[in-house]
Amino acid sequence: MSSLFAGSEIDDRGTRPVAGWAMVAVERGVDRFPEGLTYSIPPELAHVAEGHRVSVPLGKGDRPTRGTVVARLTQPPPGIDPTRTKSILEIADGRPPLPSELLELARWISRYYCCPIGLTLAAMLPAAVRREVGLVVETLVDLPVEPPPVARLGPRQRSVLSVVGALDPLHRPIEVGELAKRTGLVSSASIRGMIRKGLLTATTRRRVVGHATDPGLPSAGDRPQLTADQARVIESIAATLGAGFSRHLLFGVTGSGKTEVYLRLIEQVVAAGKTALFLVPEIALTPQTIGRLLRRFPGVPISILHSGMTAAQRHHQWSLVVEGGARIVTGARSAVFAPLPTESLGLVIVDEEHDASYKQDQAPRYHGRDVAIRRAQQAKCPVVLGSATPSLETWLNATRRSLITLHRLPQRAPGLTVPKVEVVDFAQERRRFADRRVHLIGPTLADGIRRCLADQGQAILLLNRRGYANYIACSDQRCGWIRTCSECDAGMVCHRPERRDAPGPEFLRCHHCGTEQRMPRHCPQCGRGVTVFGLGTQRVEEELLHLFPELATPDAVTRVDSDSMDAPGEFHRVLERFGRGSIRVLLGTQMIAKGLDFPGVRLVGVINADTALNLPDFRASERTFQLVNQVAGRCGRGEAAGRAIVQTFQPEAPAIRLAALHRFEEFADLELRDRDRFGLPPSRRMVRLVIRDEDLERAETVARTLASSLRPLAAEGEVDLRGPAPCPIARLSGRHRLQIELLADEAGRLQQLLQRGREAGVIRPGESLAVDVDPVALL
């Protein structure tokens, strides 16, 4: 074969000439060929390049399947018969190929997180982009260089040619519909007839229709005066811009002005002609972030990528990045895959880096923070991780291992007060109630809400549990019946209809698999009545309106959780109304616990700080500290002093006591000592293998076989293997679950073990086996 594009030297399956070969990562869970499948390239597709999305035949039925070209080859890999390779069918869309840096990032994610590369690439590309939502193909027309001889032109044709000829060359060619409109034609039929006759030349243009809406929230205001701490941090990090890869931790108390530091650094990056990538953990934080960016950078192209947008909007924003029309890219976890060329990326920012929302819970189970660090490493630019409560992994790397430069903002910005946090022993509070009815809002918190409303302030109430009540049981304790999910080893949660003005029957929902059932009125075992108790955001809302009838007006109290905020953009609209002051009390789950900055908030109440503390997960204390500390920081951001009231049955628990005192470093030292003692992350690295099957006996057999196959490899690689053992939630969505934990002192040892397991066919990620590298939750 004389040339890659010769196209006539070797036949595909002995019948067709080819222009070379390609490795294609198909969008299926194919893990036997981690580098992709080999396909020949027909001569008509000789221009196909790495990064192009293509359609290829797959399987015995040659079913057309989408995939991405990950490598061009001059000849097939060893062992592949060139006469038996199938051919690429077509280039799937008209988009430019993905940047080579994203392909390399996909290979790294596939290897590190043990996921087929085709699924990895599919996850990197938004579904709206893959489905081409909002894509239109337009016809553009212009005058031909040499018009054909025509005996006579009709009045419509003369009018069309006159309009096109009068256009400024910068505005040609012109879209057919626009030309018809300017010419006064009812339809474009005449114009298309002129194209067929050669009176006009035609080209096509692919364009994505859609735009991101302005969230309309108040911005952070004009450029504030920097504090000495902020100026010092900005100067220190700015000195590394353009100087290669570096990692920075911005450790600042809530309200210390971390966002202002980000904005000043972005200013320098944009001024240098580079692009900044700004990540936030959830779409809940994007409205205010976007508002601040729009206010600070008028006229600078900003691309917004998150799942709260319509599909067409997301495709449009993605296309802006591909076309090089964005200087700032912001969004939630998946925005880390924005198709930015490496040479244009000048800074990566990960706000609230500790947040578990950065971890993807489906394959590929990547961590957005760690992928962001990898992108910065590829681009040889700084990455800034910011948090008031850093993850212990990041804190360890910044303090003990010196892998990250630590920058501190120990004081709140001028004009903001440190909130006073009161920890209330709810066991004692219950003794003050006159009746024996279950109360969720104790006297101290109720008095705080009353004073806040009297002073025309706003309040935020947090309970990280949605629904009405989480315990449905027989009223006779001797019976012992409890309603559990038919598909999961978990209790059902009672829900009431969302609309207060449309009462309906209560129903039960499983928060793990989504199964719903009717609310039983009688115990199925003994026939006695059913009692409902426990707590949930709906029940708090009910009690709040009972205690404060003046709040029973539209919008005065708004509940924010995944049940009430199901409509696209609804949460953004709620925050807009809260910012205007029309909402007096914002009640919700962890969606409202972080990042929100509203000066009118004078009170924050934590209904129950224990919801996560007793979970069977070694990170429970860390998450509890972060949640309490973060939500307390939502108040005291205006002229009035802020107050936070934390209700708990465990007031002496270090996670709650130290969070109330804003003493993160003391908590981190205590927690790290415990992790060291038990050999748990971040002291060691972990991989969790979860075996899933509808049949328990089969699941146990597979788990034992997998463990026995891995033990020799683990011992050789100095890896500790624990299990198999049932998961804390042993059955989910009808499938039994067992886990195997792999722990080692270094990530490299775990990676070698996973690679050997995949090569030997022992580890096959898929529906029956989930591989979670660096897990953040063990339920």
Q: How would you characterize this protein structure?
A:
This protein is α/β, with parallel strands linked by helices. The chain folds into 6 domains: 117 residues, 3-Layer(aba) Sandwich (GIY-YIG endonuclease); 74 residues; 182 residues, P-loop containing nucleotide triphosphate hydrolases (Rossmann fold, 3-Layer(aba) Sandwich); 185 residues, Rossmann fold; 64 residues, no CATH class; 89 residues, Alpha-Beta Plaits (2-Layer Sandwich). It is built from 21 helices and 32 strands. The radius of gyration is 30 Å and the shape is globular. The N terminus is likely disordered.
Task: Looking at this protein, list some descriptive labels.
779 residues; alpha/beta; GIY-YIG endonuclease; 6 domains; 21 helices
